């Protein structure tokens, strides 16, 4: 068991060597540490994602760390129930996804752009005169949470607790922790669920015109008070949106800055040519996408890439591997912001493609514009290279210490 845990941890921190071996091997590759068949090639990943009737999403978010009975008892004090959009199929998925698509439409993202720019500027200004920062805690984990809080209409005073609750929910799913820490995380998740329930009630009563209001109108239509079942479904989907909505963008900001600064010629080129920022965003999302892989379960016996899969078989659909497929991209292991645009799996494909992709892109665009303008002398702080978190969900550096000359442009 200990060896399996080490292998799993190593794979999650750096899955790319395993991906490369799998793409060159015939058929699919079974990963015992993940208890699933790895789908690694672009064409095969695309095939799975376009056939939800054959590859179900019901277990897409299976916990990496099953909760102990004590943790389950603690979580039972919260508001639970109802399928979330990530783990739904067919008509149920369409019903859950529709209000998200409306709430994250391009017009809404455009209307939010001034707020994103304002908060990015304020966050950078808070440390620009220091000459150093830990970019994950000081910026990447803050901006997306604040933006999501704004989209959902939260009181700014509640946003820090909402952000922390989202991270604690993710930790319970994907991070090994001592029992006492699991219990503490469970209590924070329960507190978050009750906060979300109160917010849902207000959004319903006020008919709020924000993303939460769209969810309430979509999943609890009509003027009557939402039923207990509807509230449970809303809380579950709102909690899922918090985890998916801001943690993914946090990861994308972190990995983008890491790869731009690892070879500073990339950063210098972007500072010199800010018009390349859109291409840099697409390349960063391709090269090291924060959402590396999701599970799917076969609904019937079938064959994929020459491998026979019985009904009920788990496959690990690796977007991160598809984006490094040599058959799809030239020099796929090179980070090249001058790469010609091409369709990637950075934000998924098919019915479950990410409805918040434009919001994520806008936050990264503003981030790159702000940092290249304010801190062109930015560089990785000397010392140990940043380590990646051991997860395929929200892949990012655990920490990203950076430094710059104190007189740098506006950073004085």
Automatic annotation (TrEMBL):
Keyword RNA-binding set for record: no
Transmembrane segments: none
Pfam families in UniProt: p450
Domain of life from the UniProt record: Bacteria
Oxidoreductase recorded as keyword: yes
GO molecular function terms listed in the Swiss-Prot or TrEMBL record: heme binding; iron ion binding; monooxygenase activity; oxidoreductase activity, acting on paired donors, with incorporation or reduction of molecular oxygen
The entry's keywords: Heme, Iron, Metal-binding, Monooxygenase, Oxidoreductase
UniProt record similarity statement: Belongs to the cytochrome P450 family.
Protein name: Cytochrome P450
Organism: Spongiactinospora rosea
């Amino acid at each position: 068991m200990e060896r399996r845990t080490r292998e799993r941890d190593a794979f999650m921190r750096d899955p790319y060597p395993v991906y490369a071996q799998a793409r060159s091997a015939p058929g699919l590759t079974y990963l015992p540490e993940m208890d699933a068949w790895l789908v690694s090639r672009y064409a095969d990943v695309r095939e799975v994602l376009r056939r939800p009737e054959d590859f179900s999403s019901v277990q897409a978010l299976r916990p990496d760390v099953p909760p102990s009975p004590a943790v389950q008892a603690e979580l039972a004090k919260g508001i639970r129930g109802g399928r979330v959009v990530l783990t739904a199929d067919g008509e149920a998925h369409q019903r859950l996804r529709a209000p998200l698509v409306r709430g994250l439409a391009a017009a809404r993202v455009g209307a939010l752009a001034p707020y994103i720019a304002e908060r990015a500027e304020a966050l950078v200004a808070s440390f620009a005169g220091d000459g150093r920062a830990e970019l994950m805690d000081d910026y990447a984990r803050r901006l997306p949470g604040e933006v999501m809080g704004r989209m959902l209409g939260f009181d700014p005073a509640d946003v820090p607790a909402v952000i922390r609750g989202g991270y604690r929910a993710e930790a319970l799913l994907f991070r090994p922790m001592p029992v006492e820490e699991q219990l503490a995380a469970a209590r924070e998740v329960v507190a978050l669920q009750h906060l979300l329930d109160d917010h849902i009630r207000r959004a319903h009563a006020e008919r709020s015109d924000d993303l939460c209001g769209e969810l309430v109108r979509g999943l609890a239509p009509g003027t009557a008070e939402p039923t207990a079942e509807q509230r449970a479904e809303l809380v579950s989907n709102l909690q899922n949106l918090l985890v998916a909505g801001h943690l993914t963008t946090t990861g994308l900001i972190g990995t983008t800055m890491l790869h731009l600064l690892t070879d500073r010629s990339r950063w210098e080129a972007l500072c010199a040519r800010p018009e390349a920022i859109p291409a840099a965003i697409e390349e960063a999302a391709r090269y090291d996408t924060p959402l590396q892989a999701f599970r799917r379960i076969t609904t019937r016996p079938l064959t994929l890439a020459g491998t026979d899969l019985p009904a009920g078989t788990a496959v690990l659909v690796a977007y991160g591997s598809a984006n490094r497929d040599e058959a799809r991209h030239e020099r796929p292991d090179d980070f090249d912001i001058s790469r010609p645009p091409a369709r990637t799996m950075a934000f998924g494909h098919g019915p479950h493609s990410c409805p918040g992709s434009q919001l994520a892109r806008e936050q990264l665009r503003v981030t790159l514009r702000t940092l290249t303008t304010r801190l062109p002398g930015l560089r990785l702080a000397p010392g140990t290279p940043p380590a990646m978190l051991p997860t395929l969900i929200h892949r990012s550096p655990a920490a990203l210490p950076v430094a710059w000359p104190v007189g740098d442009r506006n950073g004085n």
